[in-house]
Design goal:
Blueprint lengths: L8 E6 L18 E2 L6 E7 L5 H4 L3 H12 L12 H4 L4 E2 L10 H6 L28 H15 L10 H26 L15 H4 L6 H16 L18 H16 L28 H19 L16 H14 L6 E5 L5 H7 L17 E2 L1 H6 L22 E3 L13 E3 L7 H6 E3 L39 E3 L8 E2 L4 E2 L5 E5 H16 L3 H13 L5 H8 L9 H15 L6 H7 L3 H4 L3 E5 L6 H4 L2 E6 L14 H6 L10
Antiparallel strand pairs: 1-3, 2-3, 4-6, 5-13, 7-8, 9-10, 11-12, 14-15
């Protein structure tokens, strides 16, 4: 299905104000809430034009609408505003949020998170943590999934549905229930797991739920995934109406992500979290390291890979077009389009609830003097650290390459004919922008860089960025300006075009899971189990080959100052982490990866830097400018705080450490 409908809700009267306990109790708070008097409050809980929940499950058509309501809570991860991983870390920066956009995740990156009205509060559904209009908090989504599973599991309801379809819909709801729990658990740590809904008239001792042990919660989410996996189809056959529905490879991918997160250092053997206990003394984290968790993650990843490949998924390669293009341009389109080309072979899970025109608008830069900043905001600004993390053209880190010197990035160089497909010939820019791997040029724009689009035709070098202060892509506008001198090309579909006074962006469903992601998850988990093995290198090298690089062992042996680095588990771990940060750049992966690797106290305590975007010439522009000095407090900042009001409403909830 191309888009999911949100079912509007009717009312259920509540007799007592005391029942308004949050789980922050989403038990009693559905999708849209209209508080009236304390004696006669109303909750929307059933589909529009249907008087009761029972009637919502009398016919297949109404039941399907309710299923789509469960889907409607899927986080809008393709949104700069609604995906915290875009701006809450160190990967990108934007102008002061009150100037261009109000994005509360940037407050988190700036160290402004708080316990009173927390920013990006997905627990209660406030400050964009609950999706558009703060109307989609995830505990509500879980509640609707439970309602759906309970009612559709009753064979006496929805008599006009086929048994196989009934099973499939229940499996989809179980998947969504697992996903919504996992989304909250990455953010808050242990949460109350809602295996079943609690009646709104239950006594306070039942409504006041506690947080569940992390390991037990993970086991339950895996159980939900396994139940869904056994039923879900291997692929979507009705592409006209069902694209976006959950398949077996998607569920296997979520299971992999859950288990990989559970095996990672933040959650596996982390003594820093020993002090997080419920009020009855229940330990919420088991702090003993369990090596077997990596084996579970590796096994799940391999199963997910095999299921995905059997369903026809493969790493995307640009198939060519009617234009004559250089190998360089074709390589870059293979990299970019793996993310932004609609329903390409690599996308296992496309989130149709989360569309991408808006994020493309925020990423795109004007490419001629005629292009308006209002139609290409260019505010998504990758940091200098991220630009430096990409490999050299030899496939190794810039500080390890024995044949290239990047020690003085203030050194400038003029682009020659051999560089013209990446940098405008005759243009002068930093040496940091030369001799880099294809993903650097595919994913990033910068002053002087080529930006190939469909309307370039066979002219590979038709468009390029000019980003100094007074240039057409410069930071000389009141609101929409770039902060670092780097631009995000990766997320903009190559069919983007400008009109006389407008711009067109080709929408695509946000890719929640790509095959390359699965390959890297498998390589990471398998290295932790076995250390460097041919199979680990095989899956790493599959990703590198699509990126136009030689294999890890060959690259390090020939070009690295540390040629033995891939030969140890620790060395290969560092390589895998960097490979993942590069391949998954700007897709919302780095923020969660840095946290689960327990590296945030280092990475998020460094300054945000970029070029001096207010410079008007080469000498002034190519100076390193500190945009912001980040501050991350460990272990406090690894998890969101629970709102003070939530703790007051539910006396059995405990606050996260440090808050």
């Amino acid at each position: 299905m191309k888009e999911f409908k949100t079912v509007k809700m009717k009312t259920l009267t509540m007799k007592k104000c005391s029942l308004w306990k949050k789980l922050g109790v989403a038990i009693a708070i559905p999708m849209m809430l209209n508080l009236q008097s304390c004696e006669d409050s109303f909750l929307d809980v059933v589909p529009d034009n249907v008087a009761t929940i029972d009637q919502a499950f009398k016919l297949r058509n109404e039941a399907e609408k309710y299923l789509f309501t469960c889907y409607a809570y899927m986080p809008r991860n393709g949104s700069l505003i609604h995906n915290p991983a875009m701006l809450a870390g160190d990967e990108m920066w934007i102008p002061d949020q009150r100037q261009a956009l109000t994005i509360y995740s940037l407050d988190i990156a700036m160290g402004n998170q708080r316990v009173s009205n927390p920013y990006f509060n997905a627990w209660d559904g406030y400050y964009d943590g609950g999706g558009p209009g703060d109307g989609y908090n995830l505990f509500d989504g879980i509640r609707h999934c439970n309602i759906f599973i309970e009612n559709l599991s009753d064979a006496s309801k929805v008599p006009d549905i086929q048994p196989s379809e009934r099973e499939r819909w229940i499996a989809e709801a179980k998947f969504l229930k697992a996903y919504y729990h996992f989304y909250l658990m990455r953010m808050y740590g242990p949460i109350p797991v809602m295996r079943e809904n609690i009646p709104v008239d239950a006594p306070s001792e039942v409504l006041d739920v506690s947080r569940d042990n992390w390991n037990e919660s993970i086991a339950y989410l895996v159980e939900l995934c396994d139940e869904a996996i056994a039923i879900l189809p291997p692929s979507i056959t009705d592409i006209n109406s069902e694209l976006g529905r959950i398949t077996r490879p998607i569920a296997l991918g979520l299971k992999t992500r859950i288990l990989l997160t559970d095996a990672s250092p933040l959650f596996n053997g982390n003594s820093d979290l020993a002090g997080l206990v419920n009020k009855d003394g229940t330990q919420l984290f088991d702090t003993d390291y369990d090596a077997s968790k990596w084996k579970l993650a590796a096994d799940a990843a391999l199963t997910a890979i095999e299921a995905s490949e059997n369903a026809g998924h493969s790493l995307y390669e640009f198939p060519g077009s009617g234009f004559t293009l250089t190998d360089t341009t074709t390589q870059k389109l293979s990299i970019r389009n793996a993310v932004s080309e609609r329903w390409n072979s690599e996308v296992i899970w496309g989130n149709t609830v989360s569309r991408t025109s808006e994020i493309q608008l925020h990423a795109m830069a004007p490419l001629t003097i005629e292009h308006s900043h209002n139609n290409a905001h260019k505010i998504m600004s990758p940091t200098l650290k991220i630009a430096q993390q990409f490999y050299t053209k030899n496939g190794v880190p810039i500080d390890e390459d024995t044949t290239l010197d990047f020690s003085d990035i203030l050194e400038l160089r003029e682009a020659g004919a051999s560089e013209k497909n990446n940098i405008r010939q005759g243009y002068t820019t930093s040496i940091l922008n030369y001799d880099r791997e294809p993903r650097f040029y595919a994913d990033l724009g910068f002053d002087g860089s080529i930006w190939y689009k469909y309307d370039s035709g066979s002219d590979d070098t038709k468009f390029h960025i000019e980003g100094k202060y007074n240039d057409y892509a410069g930071s000389n506008t009141a609101f929409f300006f770039n902060m670092t001198g780097y631009y995000v090309k990766k997320l903009v579909n190559w069919n983007q075009s400008f009109g006389e006074s407008s711009a067109s962006y080709r929408d695509y469903a946000w890719p929640e899971l790509r095959l390359a992601d699965l390959y890297l998850m498998y390589a990471e988990a398998l290295n932790e189990v076995q250390g460097p093995t041919p199979e680990v290198f095989e899956y790493l090298d599959r990703v590198r080959d699509r990126a136009g690089l030689d294999g890890v062992q060959e690259s390090w042996a020939n070009f690295s100052s540390n040629p033995n680095k891939p030969n140890s588990k620790e060395g290969l771990r560092a390589i895998i982490h960097q490979e993942r940060n590069i391949e998954m750049a700007f897709e919302g992966s780095r923020f969660w990866d840095i946290r689960r690797w327990k590296e945030a106290s280092r990475e998020f305590n460094e300054p945000i830097r970029g070029w001096n975007v207010f410079g008007e010439d080469e000498a002034s522009y190519y100076q390193v400018r500190t945009v912001f000095q980040q501050r991350f407090v460990s272990p406090r900042d690894y998890f969101w705080p629970l709102a003070e009001n939530t703790l007051l409403q539910n006396s059995n909830l405990v606050q996260n450490l440090g808050w």
